[in-house]
Specification:
Number of helices: 4
Structural class: mainly beta
Radius of gyration: 29 Å
Strand order of the largest sheet: 9-10-11-12-13-14-15-17-18-19-20-23-24-25-26-27
Shape: elongated
Distance between the termini: 48 Å
Number of strands: 27
Length: 557
Amino acid sequence: MAALAHAQTAPLPAAPRPFVEEQRQQERERALRQQQERSVDSRLQAEPRAEERRLPRGEAPCFRIERIVLAGELAAHFQWAPEAAAGEDGSDNPIGRCLGTEGVNVVMTRLQQAVVARGYVTTRVLAAPQDLGQGTLTFTVIPGRIAAIRFADGSETRTRLANAIAARPGELLDLRDVEQGLENLKRAPTAEADIQIEPSKAADARPGDSDLVVKYSQRFPLRTTLSLDNGGTKATGKNQAGATVAWDNPLGLSDLFYVSLNHDAFNHGGQGTSAQTVHYSLPWGDWLASATASQNKYHQTVQGADQAYVYAGESANAELKLSRLIYRDQRRKTTLALRTFRRSAHNFIGDAEVGVQRRATAGWELGLAHREFIGDATLDANLAWRRGTGAFGALPAPEEPFDEGTSRFRIATAELGVNAPFQLGAQKLRYTGLWRAQWNRSPLTPQDRFSIGGRYTVRGFDGETSLMGERGWLVRNDIGWALGASGAELYAGVDLGQVGGRSIEGLAGRRLTGGVIGLRGAWKGLNYDLFVGAPIRKPEGFRTAGTTAGFNLNYSF
């Protein structure tokens, strides 16, 4: 096993490394899921906030206010609202002040705006006639409830609203629930939806009752995406072609199903890859459940001492994931997720399996995802803890007798992404950044180690050789320049990364830095990314091309 760690920068054809193909396939699956599982953000704007007025001085008649109280049905739900009485900066507190009619109206407006800012856009705060002689200022809350959730007249009804919208008739109308419902309804790329809030016209409607009226439409639900790229390896085929068929909303539950097939293309005999991925996901209010399974096969011809032999491998992955939105406001949202998984791998020389390379691992991952909107910029942060277990027929890792890896691994990962558009004069520019890191709390097998060097990690390198360690980090930086209304963006990027851990002792070095320039965009149904990269800094003896040209093409219809 120690020899395996020392071989991590050897040329692929001379030293088959099955974990390289497994990691490459994992990165391709990540890219596929980003492409097919549309991320939708709905940020509905409440009524514009009025310019805040200061409390008037010297009103007559006036009454000294000692406390502010909320009354009325469901008033207990809004006990946080009086905190807004002192104004946005807290410097204009009515407590201890002498207020007249105008001052009471200013405080009432502040409480109303605070309630609306929390998303309760149909709830009203009113000041009824009262005796202020005891120093108590009482506001009455008129709760804004949902009377009905229905389709608009003439709307398509091929989806169900009960699972898409978490709120139910009779509950408080919260704009955050409406936003989440919109995101669920629009998560399928062929679907469009809009939700209007209309006063209830029911005979038994109460003050504050409103209907959520949904307008929904969906184009033909089947989508096909054809892909071509040169992101493979020389050992098993540089050029890779794929086809993905997606079925949007198959059960009328805003669900998503797709099947993806991938195969090497235009490569010579004696090498090749093939992969299949199946995915299904279903939202239910604030929950999202998904299941994904994939299989990957590859083979390459390796020249032995006396003859050439075929080295082949196959791997399979399966996962179940359940996530829940745990917090949301107008500027941010946070999701908690639990994932269970199983991975297996078998490798062969000719028709004989290499028994010591047989692997089966299983485990769980607990993750936290946060998205923050800062002006026009978007910040994404992810934290996860991954643990290997003995479930689902997991096998001890071949490296365990040497303390060089375990199937009961413990790994922490973190990721931070930034997308920030800006302008220089009339030119539209965009910065995108990504920081990714991994820490280990146990020895790790090569399949679980952190790898850098290639289009999915540190660009500028051809991906034939990589640096790998139990822990590491990478940073990717892009500046993009929008080329008018063409839909194209010219970009330049600089990436760097570093690995660490016990297994790096045999590596040529620890750090890589690379640069890339490229053109990406969309034209009709074609999405493209064309780029050229080169190493900026690498260890001596680290083998890679002086320049690397790459392309990703995806055509959807």
